[in-house]
Design brief:
The protein is mainly beta. It is 15% helix and 42% strand. Strands 4-3-2-1-30-29-28 form a seven-stranded antiparallel β-sheet. It has a five-stranded antiparallel β-sheet with strand order 24-25-26-27-31.
Length: 561
């Protein structure tokens, strides 16, 4: 082979490397089309590319919708305006008297609790210019008023009766309405159902109680017995040694039947109780005895008819405990009975019988005694709170000497006394109040005068100081405020859900006294805590007084327990 052949072979090898799919003749393989056909094939879209375009379109459409929603909520749709509540307000009435009634509920539906109370005057406040003659009543008469929880302004006022005997709110379906109502028992002989949101009368009926009677309170809300789909109301009155029962329709106030008669002695107290089987019973307490009547028997007494309603049935265990025909329920311990109180338990409600020398808890189904605790001369109806997390406790106030009382916090399940304190106290001191806190316990508020030295008790009138106590500091009291006025009603309230903890005071002359200045006051707890005086029940080294105030100031509250 000569030297001229080498370049030729090199060129062929180079061409084969550059175009490996060409045959020896320099043509492309037969399975490929011409260049125009290949270009058309490349331009034809595949399913994968189409799906990718749809996904892109969906993404941008979702993003666009999200931007529209954000823009609408940010600039177009207004955010709900939260009412601005004053920390403290005071509402005064001149030449008026008041009654021991105070209710708290959201009247104007602004999600802030409002205050309902009753005063007696010739005319209402200047805000409404209402008079007794507007309702055909002689002057002076009793006005029901609602004031705003945010600033104390008057929401509505209405003259309802010449003299108030009893008033109760939060009665479900009253007047057949969807919202609860308030029922006023007035003198002379008048029952009035009121809408708490507007003050309008839902119905008004004359009663047939007779003369020289006393209303036994509170009212008894009973299941629907007249078939109109609305729960009804039972009212007890006493005249001498005789007790009468009356049933009224919750829908229109008409009396159902006539009246029932019970021989229980003068001025009994009572309590409605529902057993585990769903049977309704009314417990009556006289000076030293306890009686039980099934709602079925009371209905038959008032109407003269045997009830066939499934809601009115008797409990076999209770019928064995209640002696016939006296309806007497024997108790293991003796003593004058002052209060009957329902106590929530793990498997239903139990019954606390507060006597002159002790408090006894009865099983709500068997009526057997669960525990007793020594507590003489109980001064007020017990209230509930949580000393330890999620464990219900009972607050008892007992008299321990002249102008002296003891506060006891008792565990509801065992009767163990977890905390107690003695205070100087004046007659008619308001009962304690509690507010639930976010740590599943409670703050306890009570009135009196703390003195570290026991021998300082004298005959002088005790101061009315308001103290705050929380179980996280069992040796500390905060003295929040003091009031020289006569306190007719007092309560601690969360004016908004889980926040805005306040207390409400109703002061002034009561209806049995002459007219004078009447005052309704709301004070925020945090305002009083910031200026409070720290009282050490036992001197221990540790936190400073300002640290204690700060801890209480930062305390959070809860509407649920």
């Amino acid at each position: 082979m000569n030297s001229d052949e080498y370049p030729v072979m090199d060129n062929k090898n180079l061409e084969a490397e550059i175009h490996p799919l060409k045959n020896e003749d320099g043509k492309a393989p037969d399975n490929h089309e011409n260049c125009a056909e290949k270009a058309a094939l490349c331009r034809k879209p595949t399913r994968l590319s189409q799906l990718s375009r749809w996904r892109t379109a969906a993404f941008f459409l979702s993003l666009f919708l999200c931007l529209i929603v954000v823009f609408a909520f940010s600039f177009i749709i207004p955010c709900p305006v939260r009412p601005v509540s004053q920390r403290t307000w005071n509402r005064k009435y001149d030449r008026a008297v008041t009654y021991k009634f105070l209710a708290v509920e959201d009247v104007n539906e602004d999600k802030v609790q409002d205050v309902i109370f009753v005063f007696k005057d010739t005319n209402g406040s200047s805000s409404f210019n209402r008079s007794c003659s507007d309702e055909g009543l002689s002057a002076p008469c009793a006005f029901v008023a609602a004031v705003s929880g945010t600033n104390g302004s008057t929401l509505w006022e209405r003259p309802v009766t010449e003299d108030l005997l009893w008033m109760e709110c939060a009665i479900e379906q009253l007047g057949g309405a969807q919202s609860p109502g308030c029922l006023v028992i007035g003198n002379p002989e008048l029952l009035t159902a009121i809408n708490p949101h507007t003050g309008e009368v839902r119905w008004r009926q004359f009663n047939s109680f007779g003369a020289n009677y006393t209303v036994v309170t509170p009212l008894v809300k009973i299941p629907d017995v007249d078939g109109d789909g609305v729960q009804d109301v039972m009212i007890f009155i006493t005249a001498g040694d005789e007790t009468k029962s009356f049933i009224y329709s919750g829908k229109n106030g008409e009396q159902i039947g006539t009246s029932g008669r019970l021989s229980l002695g003068a001025r009994p107290g009572y309590l409605m109780h529902v057993t585990k089987t769903g049977s309704y019973y009314v417990l009556f307490n006289t000076v030293n005895s306890l009686y039980g009547y099934s709602l079925k028997d009371l209905y038959s007494m008032a109407t003269g008819m045997e009830s066939k309603l499934t809601s009115l049935k008797q409990d076999s265990q209770w019928e064995k405990k209640v002696e016939s025909p006296t309806h007497h329920i024997p108790l293991l311990s003796s003593g004058d009975i002052h209060y009957l109180v329902k106590v929530p338990g793990k498997s239903g409600e139990n019954i606390l019988v507060v006597k002159s020398d002790m408090a006894e808890l009865l099983d709500g189904q068997t009526l057997n005694s669960l525990w007793t605790v020594n507590a003489s001369h109980i001064l007020s109806e017990p209230v509930f709170g949580y000393y330890t997390p999620d464990v219900l406790h009972i607050v008892l106030e007992s008299g321990v000497g002249p102008n002296r009382k003891k506060i006891m916090i008792v565990e509801g399940g065992s009767g163990a006394v977890h905390w107690e304190l003695e205070l100087n106290s004046r007659a008619g001191s308001p009962r304690p109040a509690t507010l639930n806190t976010a740590d599943h316990r409670s703050t306890f508020l009570f009135w009196g005068e703390y003195q570290a030295e026991a021998n300082e008790t004298g005959s002088k009138v005790a101061l009315q100081n308001l103290y705050l106590f929380h179980p996280s500091y069992p040796n500390v009291l905060l003295e929040l405020n003091n009031s020289p006025d006569r306190i007719v009603a007092f309560d601690a309230v969360l004016f908004e859900r889980s926040r805005h903890a306040c207390y409400v005071l109703l002061t002034g002359p009561q209806s049995s006294k002459g007219p004078g200045w009447l005052s309704v006051t709301k004070r925020k707890l945090k305002e009083d805590i910031a200026d409070s005086r720290v009282t050490w029940l036992s001197q221990v080294a540790g936190d400073s007084e300002q640290y204690i105030r700060d801890r209480f100031f930062r305390m959070r509250f809860s509407s649920q327990m």
